[in-house]
Amino acid sequence: MTPSARALAADVRARRRSAADLAREALDRAHAARHLNAFLDLFPDAAIDQAKRLDARLAAGEPVGPLAGVPVAIKDNLCLAEPYGGRTTAGSRILADYRSPYTASAVQRLLDAGAIVLGKANLDEFSMGSSGENSAFGPTLNPHDPARVPGGSSSGAAAAVAAGIVPLALGSDTGGSIRQPAAFCGIVGLKPTYGRVSRYGLVAYASSLDQVGPLARTVEDAALALAVIAGPDPHDATSARAPIPDPLASLDTPVAGATIGIPRQARSTANHPAVAAGLERAASALADAGARVIDIDLPHADRGIAAYYIVALAEASSNLARFDGVRYGRRADLEAGQGLDDLYARSRAEGFGPEVQRRIMLGTYVLSAGYYDAYYNTAMKARRLIKQDFDAAFAHGGTGGAGRAGGCDAILMPTAPGPAFRLGEKTTDPLAMYLEDAYTVTINLAGLPAISVPTGWADVDGSRLPVAAQLVGRPFDEPRLLRLARTLERGVGF
What we know:
Helix content is 37%, strand content 14%.
């Protein structure tokens, strides 16, 4: 097993290991795991050069950051400029040759902290997918069973961590795109509060929902990454100026007295038995540590999928309108007599895959005259009610916890209703695919932080597959959320 990011960085700072050796070893692991299709680009020369420069700084006695020498993978919807090739595809043909002139703020903060970018990770096209099968460059495979999906849309990032290629990766989460692949791959995935991490340099899917966050082997490494990437950014007007307490400082503080709410909706009969058992195992681990576990109700949770797939697709339709084959992106070749409208239509038809086209058309429909009020406005009202349900749970325990002293410190629920499914199993049934996000989308609609932690295993058709639960926290309360997740992680002993 690859050592943790924190342990590797400590070894590099103490000069027990060289950053260059760590980079070479990670590149060797990436080449050995090529069959997973986790990476769209590897940067051997740039990574080793960067690592050698860091080793030289250490030899000269210069200070280095908390991620010194740690190899990382970056989801390929986060911009990365030279010397890393600058290619940012978002998993789409329309951006196959796009070269980014700048680096995303979250990625730059990793680099400033001493991390070594190994490569750009595969993803569902424009982050639109729950399985990792929608990339224009082929699907990513699950390291636990290559016949199964790794989850999406941060598929390559999750697979690279789960396969031990890197201990840490950066992804993005619009409706579960960090947490769901983390669950399917048996690792930790953290979606911070909306605004906690800058979105500058992130190729937008749905701007009011997207958030950048880490995937890691341990809660401690996720906390370390958050400490590096969090904070306001003058390039992103939606980044928050809320105080940023060090999430590592209180990570091992006891959680006795904390209140954990389990929504009645989380115990759905649709859950796989291993997911249900994992949820109870997580609740027991927290209770054994002194937390109070109560039942709560989130009355509008069942509206989450419908509201999300209206709001997200409406924003996607607007955001992706800029990809027209004129200013940048793939441009179609026209035949004699064809004009500008033909150029737009052919460039987009040839550049976008079927799932992206489906979502653009649905998003355009719900924003069109005569349907805006019926769909988009109604979805926004549902979004407000979903947020109010979470607020009520944190204030006084929600409907099911009314009258109890104090509110929830966190909410516990499954990350996904089942373990990883087979490649191709749901590609012809979009609704079944969308329902894989049933437990994750409401958290994005409410803008809350959440973290997925492995809770056990499911034996399915001869495969042993991980399952997970997620903890949802109050806005900007990541330190408490991470503390509870650390306790859960230790108690379950995955």
